[in-house]
Every structure is written in C-alpha cells, then in structure tokens.
Automatic annotation (TrEMBL):
Residues 1-26 are annotated as: Disordered. Solcar repeats lie at residues 38-129, 137-239, 270-362. The keyword Transmembrane helix applies. It is found in: Mitochondrion inner membrane. Its main location: mitochondrion. This is Coenzyme A transporter. One of its GO terms (biological process) is transmembrane transport. Pfam families: Mito_carr (PF00153). It is a multi-pass membrane protein. GO terms for cellular component: mitochondrial inner membrane. PANTHER family: SOLUTE CARRIER FAMILY 25. Belongs to the mitochondrial carrier (TC 2.A.29) family. Keywords: Membrane, Mitochondrion, Mitochondrion inner membrane, Repeat, Transmembrane, Transmembrane helix, Transport.
Amino acid sequence: MGEGTGSSVVREPNKYNKGGVPSTTTTQSHVINKYSAEYIVRSGIAGGISGSCAKTLIAPLDRIKILFQTSNPHYTKYAGSLAGLVEAAKHIWINDGIRGFYQGHSVTLIRIFPYAAIKFVAYEQVRNVLIPTSKHEVHWRRLLSGSLAGLCSVFVTYPLDLLRVRLAYVTENKTRVRLLDFIRAIYGESASTTLTSRWYIPNWFAHWCNFYRGYCPTVLGMIPYAGVSFFAHDCLHDLLRVPLCAPYTVIKISEKEKSRRSQQNQRTPLTTWAELVAGGLAGMASQTAAYPFEIIRRRLQVSTLTATNAHEHKFQSIGGIAKIIYKERGWRGFFVGLSIGYIKVIPMVACSFFVYERMKWHLGI
C-alpha cells in the first residue's frame, strides 16, 4: 500500500503464547514506516474493529444511560440507583423486547467504526510527532496526544452521535423508526440565531450546524476524556511492566520478535488479564473526569425535544443547561447515571484497548 513499508510476518497456525496471543515467526526486512499509508490503514482497521466490538458489548447499558442522562419522562423515576437500572431494563424489555436495547445501535456502529479508527490513527500519528523517542515520553505529551486524537475523531463523527442519541431517546412504540425522517427533522429545526443573524453565513450552513448541537461541551469534555484515557492506559502499561510485575503481566515472545518490536519502537504486549485491567481502570479515570460535560452535551442534544421547547425549538446555551441541571438535582445532577457509566465503561474501554492491541499484533504493526 504505502512506500517504505514491508515487515513481512509469517505466522505459525494454531500455536499460541502465554496470554492467548498467536505465536509469530518474523522474517525481518524493513521497518514499517509509521507515517506510511499502510500503517495508517492497518491502525485504522484495528481501531475501527476495537470500537465496534466494545460498543456492541455495552449497547444495552448505553441505551439506558442515555435515557437517564436526558431525563426522559418515562425513565426519570428509575434514575439514580442500580435497582433503577434493573427496573429500566425490565421496562424496555416489556415494551420493546430485545430490539429495544439496541435501538439506534445501527447508527452507533456506522459512527463508531470511523470514530474509533480516526481516534487511534490520530493518536498514533500525533504521538509519533510529540513523542519521537523514549526521551520525550513525559506525562503532558501523553495527555496532549490523547486529547488531540479525541478532538479529531469527534469532529468528523459528531452528527452521527447526535442521531444516535435522538434515536435512543425516542421511547414511544412505533412499528418502524426511519433514520431519514430524523435527519430531515433535525435539519428542518430552527437554526441558531447566533448564526442566522450573521449576513455572511448561508441559511443552509446554519441549518447544517443543527447536527452539531451540543458540540462545544463535547469538545470540552473530550479533552479530559480522551487525554486521561490514553494517558492512564500508557501509565498503567508502564506500571505493569516493572520488573516485579513483568513475569506475570508481559507476554513472552521470541528474541526475533523482541528485536523487531524494538526497532519499530513498539511495546511488548501485555497478557490478557493485564491488558483488560489497564483498559478498565483507564476508562474509569476518563469517565469521571469528563462526565459533567457529557451530561450537558446529552441535554443539549435533546433540548428541542423537551416539552417546553417542543414547538419553539429553542437553542439552550451551555450555561443555561448547566443552571437547569443544578436547579433540578444540585451538583449530583452532573453525575446522574455515573454508576451505570462505570458499569459500562469498564468492559467497554477494556474491550476496546484489548482488541486494538491484539489487532495491531495480528496486522503486524
């Protein structure tokens, strides 16, 4: 695919190392160029698959969490406890069956593959620039690499996230929910007066910006979320590789493979349990740091669907939504559904990082 690439890997079938990773015999030719098209495509495929697996795993919890976050009138009474989570699940099961847990999931998958692919590709590329050698491996560079990667991915895929939330918010029994109707409805809503009041901004562009409702708090929340996620994951990898832990946490690989990975500045993979622990703890840290912004973002995304704005389609500001949330529940309102978030984020992020690292191994990067 790309020039300057070419580390050919011949795998022996049905042979596995400790940790469930395929044993590889590497024939070394040239080190894969991390800026090449081949590396970018392979890391994108690895990231997209990892994101899709993770989201499918936790799709039912994600639907319930969105219903709680957006104060859906049918589910508000269940919010705030694990018992409420169970009752909400029963309510969905009775009214919509198993399909109710995956309402909007098709849009999620359409969104998450490019989102995760862009996020991981951007992280790899930004990290290569900010951390070209081990001497540059400092905390702020790690944090900045993750934050910039998150911002790149969320800008490209945010309209799909808005559609996913709108689809998940709808709870009325319908024979079929049409995606095209949602797209038309969002585009047809009144545009922001901040945009329409500017003579140089076309009307179509102002309406197209409806698909970015809630984008500002998303950007604010993505800085701590993606940054802390990658930062914590890398730090936990370092911790699990200290000499005391390494015999139990690091996969044993051949000397040839060690040499290849060293030349490509790649870390030796962790065992399955160690990688899952690192990913789960990284997800908890990032979720806690960014959760208030996520609450504000969800409320902004469905602000035109609430009873008070159903006919006027008014835009709410970040400050206005924050005041409403604080008035309704106090500071705890910014953390509604966080317990569900923890239940969701541990398997999701653990699965995401685990599948990504293993896909990189399989794809030879």
